[in-house]
Design a protein that fits this description.
Layout lengths: L21 E6 L2 E6 L8 E3 L1 H12 L12 E2 L7 E2 L1
Antiparallel strand pairs: 1-2, 2-3, 4-5
Length: 83
């Protein structure tokens, strides 16, 4: 039986096709992340809990330079901390 194709997607905020973007996909046991400029290159895989912690910190503004965020260390089960 053939595995279904991975469906990569990028943020709707990525309006410029030449912008530095990442794409994400639902993959076995987690989320895949790859560089949109190099779709044939390697991808990173994150488990569901790690991905949820990252997304939560993004939504909280941890990486937003306008809110004082920046380099942030994210650990599962702990709030984001400046690193």
């Amino acid at each position: 039986m053939r595995e279904p194709a991975i469906r990569w997607r990028k943020s709707s905020y990525s309006l410029n096709e030449n912008a530095c973007c990442v794409e994400v996909a639902d993959i076995a046991a987690g989320i895949g992340v790859r560089d949109s400029k190099d779709p044939e290159g390697s991808a990173l895989r994150f488990g569901p809990r790690t991905w949820a912690a990252f997304v939560g910190s993004v939504r909280a503004g941890a990486y937003d330079s306008t809110t004082g965020g920046g380099h942030v260390r994210v650990e599962v089960g702990r709030p984001p901390q400046e690193g």
